């Protein structure tokens, strides 16, 4: 099997990445702390010396995750404004109309989310 020379650096990088993951996992397994079996006080979880309350498996409200996804979505929108802000004179009217279209799509999405009640925490 003859590979083009341009694939060799990619294969080396992939090999290093796989080796790093394998060494990290094996090192954590063999060098990490071992927990003793049993129900001793030492193995219980504590937060600042205060006994924990409830179950750690309590589900979060879907509103929390929806708000996080919406934050990321609208935060990434701001990232796309940077190239336009730097080069707005070179883009001219065509660039301005493209940015207006981009903003209009996000406003439609924002009003859709708002009308669907995704931003109402009281419900």
From TrEMBL:
Keywords: Cell membrane, Membrane, NAD, Quinone, Translocase, Transmembrane, Transmembrane helix, Transport. One of its GO terms (cellular component) is NADH dehydrogenase complex. Its EC number is 7.1.1.-. Its main location: membrane. It is a multi-pass membrane protein. It comes from the Bacteria. Pfam families: Oxidored_q4. It is found in: Cell membrane; Membrane. The keyword Cell membrane applies. It catalyses: a quinone + NADH + 5 H(+)(in) = a quinol + NAD(+) + 4 H(+)(out). The chain crosses the membrane at residues 6-32, 64-84, 96-114. GO terms for molecular function: NADH dehydrogenase (quinone) (non-electrogenic) activity; NADH dehydrogenase (ubiquinone) activity; quinone binding. The keyword Translocase applies. NDH-1 is composed of 14 different subunits. Subunits NuoA, H, J, K, L, M, N constitute the membrane sector of the complex. NDH-1 shuttles electrons from NADH, via FMN and iron-sulfur (Fe-S) centers, to quinones in the respiratory chain. The immediate electron acceptor for the enzyme in this species is believed to be a menaquinone. Couples the redox reaction to proton translocation (for every two electrons transferred, four hydrogen ions are translocated across the cytoplasmic membrane), and thus conserves the redox energy in a proton gradient. Belongs to the complex I subunit 3 family. HAMAP family: NDH1_NuoA. This is NADH-quinone oxidoreductase subunit A. The lineage of its organism: Bacteria, Pseudomonadati, Bacteroidota, Flavobacteriia, Flavobacteriales.
């Amino acid at each position: 099997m003859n590979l083009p020379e341009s694939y060799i650096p990619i294969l080396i990088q992939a090999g290093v990445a796989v080796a790093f993951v394998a060494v990290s996992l094996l090192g954590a397994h063999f060098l990490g702390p071992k927990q003793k079996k049993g129900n001793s006080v030492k193995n219980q979880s504590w937060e600042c010396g205060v006994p924990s309350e409830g179950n750690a498996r309590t589900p979060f409200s879907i509103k929390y995750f929806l708000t996080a996804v919406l934050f990321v979505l609208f935060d990434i929108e701001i990232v796309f404004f940077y190239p336009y802000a730097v080069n707005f004179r070179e883009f001219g009217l065509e660039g301005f109309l493209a940015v207006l279209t981009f903003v209009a799509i996000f406003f439609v999405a924002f009003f859709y989310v708002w009308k669907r009640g995704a931003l109402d925490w009281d419900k």
